[in-house]
Each structure stands twice: as C-alpha cells, then as structure tokens.
Design brief:
Helix content is 41%, strand content 28%. The chain has 183 residues and is of the alpha+beta class.
C-alpha cells in the first residue's frame, strides 16, 4: 500500500512537470479578480479591507491555484485562454481625448468619436494587422526564431530582433529618423 502511494505521487509529480513545463501563463482569473478589487472603490482603505477579506476566505488562493493548475495549462497547450476578456471595453485617456478599447477574440477595436480601427491577430500567419475604413495593412509578422518582420508603408518590410537594437531599427525605419554619430 505504501509503495503504491509513492508510485502514484511520483507519477503525478512527473506528469505535472511535463504538462506544466514553461507554462507561466497570463494568470487572467487572478488578475481579473485583482482588477475587480481595485475598481470597487476609489478609497485605498476599502480596497485593502476587501483584499484582506478575500485572502482570509481564500478567494485569491483558489483563483491563483485554478490559474496555475488549469487555465494557464489550457492557455499554454491551446494558445487560447478560457478566461480571456473578449468583449471588455475600457476607456483610455489619451493626450487628445478619450479612446474606447474593446477586446475581441483576435484583437482590439479602438475608437474615438466616430472613427475606429481594428488591430487583428491572424494566428495562422502569426501577423498583426490594422484595418481602418475597409483598408487593411499588415503591421508585424512574428517568427519562431525570435525576429519580427516590420511592414513599412511603402510595402517593403524589414526584419528586426526583439531587443533594444531591433526596436531602434524599426523606429528609425517607420518614423524615418536619422541619427548621426559624433565624437
């Protein structure tokens, strides 16, 4: 009996290590619970009391455990999070007014006044594109080797790495900046 429990425990531990390897995930259930707590009231003392209460009655612990054991694993293996916030609409304050950002299944709809644009992710081609007034253009294409093709307005594209140098190169190409070195 003792040996079968040890075998079962080792099997569970090994399968967990294989199933959950490198699965950090987005912890969306826990983060949604935390965001809800922060939006309850503008008073930081009320938010702290709710936070403490949700830790005493282990709501945060259960949400975190559900994310760790189930939701993040589903997100890792399928690429989709079952608690994704599709349909959520948030107001973002910009320098020139408020923007409404709606989360969709495959991207975002950003609107201000009567104008809107869609940022769409195509999972098959691993490409983000933008659509405005029935005109669509690709923005970036992600590659498995850690590089990104940045699509330029003149229909050319450049391949950059996902680091500070790559971001600087993409920024120079898209904004048409010129930097000169001097001593």
């Amino acid at each position: 009996m003792k040996r079968s429990k040890l075998t079962l425990a080792c099997t569970c531990l090994l399968s967990s290590a294989i199933l959950f390897s490198s699965c950090i995930g987005s912890f969306s259930l826990f983060n949604r619970l935390l965001a809800w707590n922060q939006e309850i009231n503008d008073n930081k003392f009320v938010n702290e009391l709710v936070f403490v209460a949700l830790n005493i009655v282990p709501v945060y612990a259960i949400a975190g455990l559900a994310d760790i054991l189930v939701l993040n694993s589903i997100e890792f293996w399928s690429g989709n999070n079952p608690v994704a916030n599709a349909g959520d609409v948030k107001t973002i304050k910009g320098m020139d007014g408020d923007y409404m950002v709606e989360t969709t299944e495959n991207g975002y709809i950003i609107s201000k006044d009567e104008e809107s644009m869609e940022l769409i992710y195509n999972q098959e081609s691993n490409t983000w594109s933008v659509t405005t007034e029935e005109v669509s253009s690709d923005l970036i294409t992600l590659h498995e080797n850690g590089t990104v093709d940045v699509h330029l307005p003149d229909k050319n594209s450049i391949n950059v790495t996902l680091d500070a140098q790559g971001v600087l190169t993409a920024r120079q190409a898209t904004m048409n900046y010129s930097f000169f070195a001097s001593r």
